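[step 3/7] fold_predict: job queued, chain A
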Amino acid sequence: SAVAGGQPGVLGIRREDKNKWERRAPVAPKHVQELVKQGIKVIVQPSTRRVFTDEEYRSAGAIIQEDLSECVTIAAVKEVPIDLLLPNRTWIFFSHTIN
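[step 4/7] structure written:
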């Protein structure tokens, strides 16, 4: 079971949902395979729009599931709506910030 803040060594890949046209992914299946070889557990939210299929991630060693609460670190392409941010996690996503 997940502890508050997620389990060490578990990376989540969030499904992109901000824009219907968004197909990018923060981590490719070939990189998931390398992470899994190093002992990292990778959980990927399912997506029918992502440039890589769920099966490609599954074949690379990822677990495909909706729930990312076990993840201590979560990667995404676009910013995550505040109400969907899991607390006490490290979030990695790209931001266009104006100074």
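[step 5/7] annotate
Helices lie at 29-37, 54-59.
The mean pLDDT is 88.
exit 0
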